[in-house]
UniProtKB/TrEMBL annotation:
Transmembrane feature ranges: 9-26, 46-67, 74-92, 112-136, 148-169, 181-204, 216-233, 253-271, 278-298, 304-327, 348-368
NCBIfam families in the record: MSEP-CTERM (TIGR04286)
Record InterPro entries: MSEP-CTERM, VIT
The species this protein was found in: Paralabilibaculum antarcticum
Protein name: MSEP-CTERM sorting domain-containing protein
Annotated keywords: Membrane, Transmembrane, Transmembrane helix
Coiled coil: none
Residue ranges of every copy of the VIT domain listed in the record: 455-585
Lineage of producing organism: Bacteria, Pseudomonadati, Bacteroidota, Bacteroidia, Marinilabiliales
């Protein structure tokens, strides 16, 4: 244990954790400082300065000892114990004023109050080791049972005090009594741990024959029996009195297997044989990471162990990781000392390090495989390359989804919930970038690849039946520099609900083509608060958190196509609130909000609404009238359901297809057919289609959304004189995976804005591509092919087909637009058009999303133009703005398809830092196999 006296340990044990502790608290302070009063801020500064002084003194002392080549003294161990215990005690006493209840809980991690104890615990344990080392010399002549007796007497004395003295206690004052009891608890806990460590140290170090001959009598209980008993108790396999998984989820069979294997390695005899001892040393080094893991998990709870012993009796199991930790180090030390006669110290240290890292490396590789599978899945569903074939590892994917769902479990144990301590945090960091998957995405992914029935999603409670627009006005200004209009729609919204409680205004409206939102405001009390343009997911997450605490948010964001969601919250009884939205548009337009139609701008003589640059073309309504109108040839494209459970429907589906083709022969020429489950396989409609159909694997879900998008993409890419009439062939259109409309793909279906499915009678039922695609609509089949489109001929001899309607259209000159060529100008119409063009390009080529979406978001920020990737949000104070900024940075540095969540349950990001710091703090212990020398 003399190696513990090396002052370099102080840098790892104390300086590094406290540095990160300062970073964590400073990052939270910058968010919540505007919500703290003067007294709160004084406490923050006082504790910060105090801890800074302690840390600096510790650092100076360590550097002095290193320069003088001296060892850490017993005086340091005593002073450090007193100083840091006092700091933790005072922090706990003032914690309600440091982080007052007025701070919204969503702004801070749930376990922030534990950070101080967790990060200072290494120093406290280290101080105990220092004191044990200094006061336990000549271990061969000492009796360990004296220390163990003292260890047992302390909880016994506490029990007697609690049963006899405390009931007779006549307090001098409530605070005095409380503080006195706490101080005695602290002293007793320190003494308890001191004698426990001392007794085990003496026991492990003695070389007397009696200890050697009967070492299995104490090694087996410490290394196997007690750990297995602790696992069984924690997992509810012995008793459900304490609940299940109070310290985390250790139900995996691997915890039991590794416990047994690790115990066997520790209990094996230390024979005088080089090859045997080297193999044993390697095995023990590998198992030491497992021992270290549980020591790490229970380290913050060591002070509670004595209370648990008194309260539950079996609380001594909380001490097992500490006992095993000391025992394991001692065995490694013996192996190390023996092998030094044959192998150099450097090689042995390298061997031990590589062994220690084997289990973490295996876990890391497993997580990386899960990450690759998950990212490939997210790419396939949300940012696919429609020209690429995919083959997802379903087993790895399901394992990842199970872990994500487990982490989202709201009914977990009180300490770590349903997570695996630290490993779950590591998983979240490595696989999920400290984000998560929303319930909706988990639903979709499982349905696509497993064909499972989706679980019910929690719907948001929006009370807005009586919240209506009571006044609406507009003002338009013509910008002669860019020949465009900038218009404001100002609204007064009234809550006509006479009941108590808060209501919300929530609606949606459509933007005309070539019109974008460029500003937003909301009155908060009597203050006009301008909207912040933020990344969409971050804005929606912050809006949800603020809304759940009944504060004042307002938000605008795209739903799909040009449809905008507009929400303002909250409205008190009979309250009137003012808000407004600014639009930028080329010519006169009309916008309808909740039945109120507002005309913006007006016609200007000699004004040319057309626009063209190197990337795209804007075709105005007037220009469309002069274009050639043609009718393209329609053809059937069948999307046949070959998902799980449809193998018995083969003959039924084939019969329906033949029946529809017989009734509509003009649509049957050049027909195509796709077989759809998790994937879409397309072929021309020839004589072999039935044979191919019959040979398909019926698995997964009916992923109709992907099949329709694939069909629309192919049609847009071919850009021919024909177009597909999409027909879904399934017995359960309601169960098809079809959660959104296809309004973003409207450029690909200018001729026909519906698709069909064949019902059980062989009739075609129409569904809108533009909205509510699962709802049946009335559409005459005979009219297919009668609709004309506008043919626009470009300079490169290519043509584009535009919907023949009274709306403007946007044409992309190239399929993939180069973002670096865009010139971003604030509140500029042509910049808005370019951003819209880039978004449309990403709709048809989602594979470019992860490369360009950050530039797209930044372009939106710079131009102040809201796009489908951004949102206008109004918040009421600086703390909410800081939180928005933090979440936005987190989202922009991660995979676009991951989520912040859909509810108030937050990810606890700093737990990862806790893991990393504690890991770094004690990683050097891998060398401490020499401690017992």
């Amino acid at each position: 244990m003399n190696n513990l006296l090396n002052p370099k340990w102080l840098l790892v044990i104390n300086t590094l954790p406290i540095t990160v502790l300062f970073y964590l608290y400073l990052s939270k302070f910058t968010i919540i400082k505007s919500l703290l009063n003067v007294d709160n801020i004084k406490l923050w500064k006082s504790f910060g300065i105090s801890l800074g002084i302690l840390s600096i003194l510790n650092l100076l002392y360590a550097l002095y000892l290193i320069l003088k080549k001296q060892k850490v003294s017993a005086i340091y161990g005593f002073i450090a114990l007193v100083a840091y215990i006092s700091f933790i005690y005072l922090y706990g006493s003032n914690s309600r004023d440091i982080i007052p209840f007025s701070i919204p809980r969503w702004m801070i991690p749930d376990d922030m109050i534990l950070y101080v104890g967790t990060f200072l615990m290494p120093t406290l344990i280290y101080s105990l080791f220092i004191l044990v080392s200094h006061f336990t010399y000549n271990t061969q002549n000492r009796n360990p049972w004296k220390s163990f007796s003292a260890t047992l007497l302390i909880p016994l004395a506490w029990y007697l005090i609690s049963q006899i003295i405390l009931p007779l206690w006549k307090p001098l004052g409530a605070n005095f009594s409380t503080h006195t009891v706490i101080i005695f608890v602290i002293i007793g806990t320190v003494a308890f741990l001191f004698f426990l460590i001392r007794g085990l140290y003496i026991l492990a170090s003695k070389k007397a024959d009696i200890w050697q001959n009967y070492q299995l009598a104490w090694k087996i209980p410490i290394s196997m029996v007690l750990p297995l008993l602790g696992l069984a108790l924690n997992n509810g396999r012995i008793s459900s009195f304490l609940g299940t998984g109070i310290f985390g989820d250790f139900n995996s069979i691997w915890f039991y297997i590794l416990t047994v294997v690790n115990g066997i390695l520790i209990c094996l005899p230390n024979l005088e044989n080089k090859g045997y001892r080297l193999s044993l040393f390697i095995g023990r080094s590998i198992g030491f990471s497992f021992t270290f893991y549980f020591f790490l998990v229970f380290l913050p709870f060591l002070p509670l162990s004595i209370i648990a012993i008194i309260a539950f009796g079996l609380g001594f199991l909380m001490l097992t990781p500490l006992l095993l930790f000391v025992l394991h180090i001692n065995e490694l030390s013996k192996d190390f000392t023996y092998l030094l006669s044959y192998i150099s110290k450097t090689k042995l240290r390298l061997i031990s390090l590589l062994g220690f890292l084997m289990i973490p490396a295996f876990i890391t590789l497993t997580f990386l495989q899960d990450k690759n599978t998950l990212h490939e899945t997210l790419e396939y569903i949300y940012t696919p390359n429609y020209s690429k074939s995919y083959n997802i590892n379903r087993s790895s994917l399901q394992n990842t989804l199970d872990i994500v769902k487990q982490h989202k479990d709201r009914n977990g144990a009180p300490i770590f919930g349903s997570k695996v301590p630290y490993l779950s945090t590591y998983f979240n960091w490595l696989v999920l970038d400290n984000l998560t998957l929303s319930d909706k995405k988990i639903n979709t992914i499982e349905n696509v690849f497993s064909g499972t029935t989706p679980f019910n999603l929690r719907s948001e409670n929006i009370v807005n039946d009586q919240v209506k627009i009571s006044n609406i006005s507009s003002e338009s200004t013509y910008d002669t520099t860019q020949n465009t209009w900038r218009s404001w729609i100002n609204l007064e919204i009234t809550n006509h609900n006479n009941k108590s409680g808060f209501s919300e205004y929530a609606t949606s409206f459509n933007l005309p083509e070539g019109c974008w939102i460029s500003d937003y405001y909301l009155y908060v009390d009597e203050r006009k608060e301008m909207g912040i343009l933020a990344e969409k997911k971050s804005a929606m997450w912050v809006f949800s958190q603020i809304r759940n605490t009944n504060r004042d948010p307002g938000i605008l964001h795209y739903l799909s196509g040009n449809k905008i969601a507009f929400r303002v919250f909250p409205f008190a009884k009979n309250e009137i609130r003012k808000t407004g939205v600014e639009f930028i548009h080329k010519g006169p337009i009309e916008i309808t909000i909740d039945g109120h139609t507002v005309a913006l701008g007006k016609t200007i003589e000699d004004h040319n609404d057309n626009f063209e640059n190197e990337n795209l073309i804007y075709v105005s309504v007037q220009n469309k009238k002069s274009l050639e109108q043609i009718k393209r040839k329609p053809y059937f494209h069948f999307l046949v359901d070959v998902s799980n459970g449809n193998d018995n429907n083969y003959s039924i589906f084939a019969s329906r297809i033949k029946q529809v083709m017989q009734k509509n022969k003009r649509l049957s020429a050049d027909a195509k057919i796709s077989f759809v489950n998790s994937y879409t396989n397309t072929m021309n409609f020839d004589l072999n289609w039935e044979q191919y159909f019959n040979s398909k694997n019926f698995e997964g879900g009916y992923y109709l959304d992907r099949a329709i998008k694939q069909t629309l993409f192919d049609s847009y890419k071919n850009n021919s004189n024909s177009y597909p009439v999409i027909v879904a062939v399934t017995d359960s259109i309601d169960q098809a995976i079809l959660d959104q409309d296809f309004s973003d793909f409207k450029m690909a279906y200018p001729d026909l804005n519906v698709f069909f499915h064949i019902d059980e009678y062989g009739d075609l039922q129409a569904h809108s591509l533009h909205s509510n695609p699962k709802i049946i609509q009335s559409y005459p089949i005979k009219s297919i092919g009668n609709n004309s489109v506008c043919k626009f001929s470009m300079a490169n001899n290519k043509s584009r087909y535009l919907a023949n309607n009274k709306e403007a259209s946007i044409i992309l000159k190239e399929d993939i637009l180069n973002f670096s060529k865009f010139k971003i100008v604030k509140k500029n119409w042509s910049t808005a058009l370019s951003l819209q063009g880039k978004w449309t390009s990403q709709v048809f080529h989602p594979e470019t999303t992860n490369l360009d979406w950050i530039n797209h978001v930044r372009g939106s920020f710079s131009s102040k133009i809201m796009t489908p990737l951004t949102s206008y949000l109004v918040v009421e104070n600086e703390s909410q703005k800081e939180m928005l900024k933090k979440k936005q940075e987190q989202v922009l540095s991660s995979n676009k398809s991951l989520d912040l969540g859909e509810d108030t349950q937050r990810m606890s990001e700093p737990n990862l830092i806790t893991l990393m710091i504690l890991l770094l703090t004690f990683l050097g212990i891998k060398k401490s196999k020499q401690f017992m020398n």
